[in-house]
Amino acid sequence: MQINPGVAEFPHRQIAAQLKTQIRRGDWAPGERLPSIPAIAEMFGVAKQTVQRAVDQLRVEGVLITKPGSGTYVRGTRRRLNRLSRGRYGGFRGYHTDLAARYRQQLVSVGRSPAPPEVADAFGVPDGTELLRRRHLVRTEDSPVEVGASWFLPADTTGTSLEHTKAFGRPLYQEAEEATGRRYVTATDTITARQPSREESEMLQIRPDTPVLHLLHVAYDAHRKPIEVAQATWPGPVTTLTEEYRIPSPSADPDPDPGLVLG
After folding, report:
1. Is the pLDDT of residue 53 over 60?
2. What are the helix (H) ranges across the chain?
3. Apex CA 137: angle with CA 131 and CA 143, to 5°?
């Protein structure tokens, strides 16, 4: 283990890269504790502050996790979350059994709340309009992996089960279809990367400088009117979003535009 002073890369990043290499080749397995900061500093011949910066970097990247009073450990492998919203509808518009088996969703709150800009835009209402919000937290066995909310227009939900502070024994969209009398027909998903809010970092138990992935899901009826606008936020460094899809077979090129002249 050594630092090369002749390269442009900062020493703490060189250390972080070498620690990642050792983790990948199995020198430290998932769940195993790394040597102490002073011990690693001695290995590399650098100051403890330099090693601390390397460890902080790897924590933000999701490679390491620090347990106060215990030490720094290798985090388990990335969670492969097939949680693009099409997964919520399942193969037959029912529970996605694979997701239900691996994740536990906890209903946090239900009530009227001012719509944030992205939700207001999706519904076509002014920012801050009072809408019905159902907030949730999703956990695996060891930690929270998603914080989110589903938003509805009060005109669709007043006096329905969607206002009740209870979890349903079926997917939310099925409850919403029955409560509103409107069928989910199409949907759009928009994913962005950003820094978490203070509340998100606390709920997800991540550092405030850890990037997150944020999903905005808008579900429409047959008239292209939004029924539900859902948000989901995941810790970016430990989240992999995966989609599998078929690629259409080649087809004959259509006749060229008669008005198009190719030189």
Report:
1. yes
2. 11-24, 37-44, 48-60, 86-89, 97-102, 117-123, 154-157, 172-180, 198-204
3. 160
Q: Residue 140 corresponds to which amino acid? A: T
User: Is the distance from CB of 150 to CB of 230 less than 8 angstroms?
Assistant: yes
pTM greater than 0.90 (yes/no):
no
Query: Which of the two residues, 237 and 214, has the higher pLDDT score?
Result: 214
Q: Which of 4-8, 17-21, 107-111, 234-238 has the lowest mean pLDDT?
A: 4-8
235 pLDDT more than 50 = yes
Helix/strand/coil for 69: coil
**Which residue type, as a one-letter code, is found at position 36?**
S
The span from the CA of 73 to the CA of 148, in Å, is 28
Calpha distance 31→64 (Å, rounded): 9
Residue 157: partners with Cβ closer than 8 Å, 6 or more residues away: 132, 163, 179, 180
Structure token pair of residue 125: 């209402």
Name the β-bridge partners of 134.
110, 150
What is the pLDDT at residue 237? 78
Looking at the predicted structure, is the pLDDT value of residue 20 above 80? yes
C-alpha distance from residue 18 to each of 51, 55, 66, 158 (Å): 12, 11, 19, 57
